[in-house]
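Supplementary notes for students who missed Thursday's class. We covered one full example, reproduced here. Read the sequence, then the structure, then the short commentary at the end.
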Amino acid sequence: MLLTNKVAFITGTSRGIGKNIVEQYAINNATIYANARTEGSIDDYTKKLCKKYNVTIIPLYFDVTDVTAAKNAILKIKKEQGKLDILVNNAGIMKDALIGMISADMMHEIFETNVFAVMEMIQLASKLMTRQKSGSIINISSIVGVNGNKGQLVYSASKGAIISITKTAAKELAPNNIRVNAIAPGMIDTAMFRSISESHQSELVNNIGMGRIGSPEDVAKACVFLASDLSNYVTGQILGVDGSAIV
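Structure (token representation):
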């Protein structure tokens, strides 16, 4: 029950890591506002979690690149809960292309979702957190944002930007007791990973020191730690959840 009496807002919760963060926060007794783009897409599983763990989960359907919708979401949380303790910026997109094949549209699309929307959300959430003089902001980066990866110039750049955003926001918001950290997952067993060929999957697993692919739950549990009072003196950090992987 590490998150009892805490209000959390999590973006990108329809599948994979985001969906698992919602469940781990439910297990730990948080009140959760869960974001997804497609209307009704998370109704079923959030209702099941509410019943199973006796918690409150409110779906919020909007695209994180819609600034007005993001602002309305924060205002709704403020009106209904009077506070916001945790923001998890999980929503993101990944598209790969070799340097010569990158288009301007691709650059804009990835940065609008992975970077600009995160900065907007931090701005909005930090206003509420500053008034209450507390809060934890968790940004989901990637191992490729730390180390880079061939064929992922734009995606790596967007996740590298998340690291810079995290370190800078942590310094600026620390006087208000607002902590800002990031998680950099490695190879995680999601639908995206399973979409690649088995031979490529095996090659990637062979580059992981622990000899196994990570699970979305591994990342979600790290999110619980950074949201909880166990990490009260931790800010500006990039937590790798990668099993000692080599990209």
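Commentary. The chain has nine helices and seven strands. The longest helix spans residues 104-132. If anything here is unclear, bring it to office hours.
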